[in-house]
């Protein structure tokens, strides 16, 4: 989850300033704004008396006893309802701590705070924005249009449902050109455009009406197949929809369109597993370098980012090798999926999955391996040995 909040900090010491500033380096706060000012409580009261209140205040104070409560009463008068407040104070008194929490202070730290302690306190304060999702979220994005990221996303979803007998929801984010409905031979009556339009009042019961069935354990939140939906995805609306979707299935597959804006960046950074799909040519190599240079610092080493080369062998001459991608990107592709025109064309034209059209195809076998990779259930070393790919190398390193 990526928090999108405004944080205002009013500090007195270098240690607290450093702890707050460190939030800018954490992917959880990629879309948050963090403003740090000197002066502690006095500066906060002066500043907020003339300006709107940020969603979170971090205030350092040396006041004690009655003076502290006088400051907090003054702070309450200039804060808007719903403002979260974290105090770093000087008084070591358990009764004071209990009183402050009872009065609505989110957290109280004695004398100083570390970056990790501050992060934990913020996550607790905004628990409604950091719900423990039921699902594992996997984003598929193409380095260029036409590389097959959507086809792989839809087939991986089907494989996850088959392999683990768990619920999978595909969210087609490509308005208005999404192909998830076509891949499953569906004609949706309601789509993600309807869900986004109702984002402010959406709940699981309502969202169930927007889902289409794509087979055993597979549901789809389809994109509208026309140009007149009148809906544009915004970060806040999408976050509201996905927070609900993530409570409804073990896996959520995000089919990300080939564009680059704030909400797309949020999706590929925030997903538990991000699969970047490209073709083995110079154009994809150039774009891959740009994408991985963005993802590396923002996702961090704890969140897998996998490069998958698709349509390998389609070009008889001039294809780039895995080695050439590794030399430029610093990461070896996790998988290379061979070009199989009969299997992919048959699946596309019939609105069926590769597993049904060409169960023995090498491409089908590699899609199954990819599903196991992103499942979070399989041994990395076992899959790497089986596929011959560089799974551990798929965590991008400069």
Description of the molecule:
With 398 residues, the protein is of the alpha/beta class. It folds into two domains: 6-129, 3-Layer(aba) Sandwich (Rossmann fold), CATH 3.40.50.2300; 136-394, P-loop containing nucleotide triphosphate hydrolases (Rossmann fold, 3-Layer(aba) Sandwich). The chain has 17 helices and 13 strands. The protein has an eight-stranded mixed sheet, sandwiched between helices. Strand 3, helix 3 (65-78) and strand 4 (84-89) form a beta-alpha-beta unit. Helix 2 runs parallel beside helix 3. The chain is elongated, with a radius of gyration of 24 Å. The two termini are 25 Å apart. Residues 388-398 have low confidence and may be disordered.
Secondary-structure map with pairings?
Elements lengths: L5 E6 L2 H8 L11 E6 L1 H9 L7 E5 L4 H14 L5 E6 L4 H9 L4 E4 L4 H11 L10 E7 L6 H16 L3 E5 L7 H4 L8 H6 L6 H7 L1 E2 L4 E4 L13 H11 L5 E5 L6 H9 L2 E6 L3 H18 L5 E8 L9 H8 L5 E4 L2 H10 L3 H4 L4 H13 L5 H8 L11
What's the short story on this structure?
The protein is an alpha/beta fold and 398 residues long. Helices cover 41% and strands 17% of the residues. The chain contains 17 helices and 13 strands.
Instruction: Give a quick account of the main beta sheet: strands, pairing sense, barrel closure.
Output: 8 strands, mixed
Count, helices: 17
Rg over C-alpha atoms, rounded to the nearest angstrom: 24 Å
CATH topology of the largest domain: Rossmann fold
Task: Encode the helix/strand succession as letters.
Answer: EHEHEHEHEHEHEHHHEEHEHEHEHEHHHH
CATH class term of the largest domain = Alpha Beta
State the helicity in percent bands: 40-55%
Mean pLDDT: 89
The CATH architecture classification of the largest domain is: 3-Layer(aba) Sandwich
How much β-strand is present in the residues? Answer: 15-25%
Shape: elongated
CATH superfamily descriptor of the largest domain: P-loop containing nucleotide triphosphate hydrolases
What structural class do helix, strand and pairing data support? alpha/beta
The N- to C-terminal Cα distance equals: 25 Å
* Number of β-strand runs: 13
Order of strands, main sheet, comes to 8-9-7-10-6-11-12-13
Task: Compute the number of structural domains.
Answer: 2
**Low-confidence residue ranges:** 388-398
């Amino acid at each position: 989850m990526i928090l999108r909040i405004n944080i205002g900090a009013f500090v007195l010491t270098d240690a607290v300033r450093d702890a707050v500033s460190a939030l800018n380096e954490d992917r959880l706060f990629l879309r948050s704004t963090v403003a740090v000012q000197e002066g502690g409580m006095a500066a906060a009261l002066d500043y907020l008396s003339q300006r709107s209140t940020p969603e979170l205040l971090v205030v350092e104070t040396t006041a004690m006893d009655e003076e502290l409560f006088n400051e907090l009463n003054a702070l309450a008068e200039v804060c808007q309802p719903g403002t979260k407040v974290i105090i770093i104070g000087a008084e070591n008194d358990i009764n004071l701590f209990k009183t402050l929490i009872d009065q609505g202070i989110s957290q109280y730290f004695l004398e100083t705070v570390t970056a990790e302690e501050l992060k934990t306190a913020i996550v607790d304060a905004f628990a409604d924005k950091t719900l423990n999702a039921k699902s594992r979220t996997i984003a598929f994005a193409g380095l260029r249009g036409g590389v097959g990221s959507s086809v792989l996303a839809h087939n991986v979803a089907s494989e996850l449902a088959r392999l683990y007998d768990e619920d999978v929801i595909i969210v087609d984010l490509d308005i208005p050109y999404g192909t998830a409905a076509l891949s499953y031979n569906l004609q949706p009556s309601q789509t993600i455009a309807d869900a986004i339009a109702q984002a402010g009042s959406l709940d699981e019961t309502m969202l169930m009406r927007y889902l289409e069935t794509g087979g055993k354990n597979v549901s789809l939140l389809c994109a509208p197949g026309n140009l007149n939906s009148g809906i544009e995805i915004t970060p806040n609306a999408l976050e509201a929809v996905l927070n609900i979707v993530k409570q409804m299935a073990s896996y959520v597959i995000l089919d990300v369109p080939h564009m680059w804006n704030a909400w797309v960046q949020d999706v590929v950074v925030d997903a538990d597993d991000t699969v970047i799909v490209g073709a083995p040519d110079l154009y994809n190599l150039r774009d891959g370098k740009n994408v991985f240079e963005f993802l590396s610092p923002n996702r961090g080493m704890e969140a897998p980012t996998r490069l998958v080369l698709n349509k390998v062998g389609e070009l008889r001459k001039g294809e780039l090798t895995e080695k050439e991608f590794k030399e430029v990107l610093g990461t070896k592709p996790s998988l290379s999926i061979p070009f199989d025109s009969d299997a992919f064309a048959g699946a596309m034209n019939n609105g069926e999955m590769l597993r049904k059209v060409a169960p023995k195809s090498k491409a089908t076998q590699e899609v199954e391996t990819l599903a196991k990779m992103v499942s979070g259930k399989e041994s990395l070393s076992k899959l790497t040995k089986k596929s011959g790919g560089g799974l551990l190398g798929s965590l991008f390193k400069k």
